[in-house]
Amino acid sequence: MGIVFGYLSLICFCMLVAKWIARRCNLIKFDKVLMRIHRPVSLLLIVFCILHISFCIPVLRNRNILVNVSGVVAVVFMIVLIFSCHVLKQKDRRMKWHRILTILMAVCIVWHVVVYFMDFREYQRKVDSIVFKNIKLSDVEDGTYVGEYDAGYIYAKVEVMIEDGRIVSINLMEHRNERGKAAEVIVDKVVATQKIDVDAVSGATNSSNVIKKAIENAVTQ
Questions:
Q1: Judgement on whether residues 21 and 123 belong to the same structural domain of the protein
Q2: Which of 66, 107, 128, 198 has minimal CB crowding within 10 Å?
Q3: What 3-state class would DSSP assign to 159?
Q4: Structural domain that includes position 205
Q5: ∠ CA 205-210-215 to the nearest 5 degrees?
Q6: Nearest Cα to 221, choosing from 138, 144, 169?
Q7: Reading across the β-sheet that carries 166-176, which strands appear in turn?
Q8: What is the pLDDT of residue 64?
Q9: Are 212 and 197 a contacting pair, CB within 8 Å?
């Protein structure tokens, strides 16, 4: 849901920017229409930003630091912008700071969106590049092995116990994800079939592959 509210926030901001463009281009009728919805759209922007942040807090560790920084700075400029509109009484001064803060916020939002898509593209590249080796469990010495795999948006760490050339148990120590919790049953499939490259859980393919790769990394130490 975090990404959904992020897109809704972006749409609201684009509508507010469209008002400024309409006024600059002397599109009087369009400017009047946008002026009527300026306040409700501004309120929606605030609400959507709050919801976006709320849903993103649990997965901040999965994000590139620049995604987090740019998002926080954009919100700070938005808060200062709202504050200045209520504190500054002189219209000319208020409008001046309104323009400055809006431009700064726009720069941060563009920065945030660009870095996010670059980060997401790298995550997709990592997930798509996952391949599994043909491992003979009979060649693995008895013991307990820890393995992990970090794809950026998804991270998994497992503890695998091997006895007599068989996987006795798999403990999923950590699984950072957004919508892939259903994939956690994959560890039971691996134990049951004694194969690492089992079929992914429907609807949670990426998390399934990351967990399986963590298992492979554990037993191939």
A1: yes
A2: 128
A3: strand
A4: 137-219
A5: 125
A6: 144
A7: 143-150, 155-163, 166-176
A8: 80
A9: yes
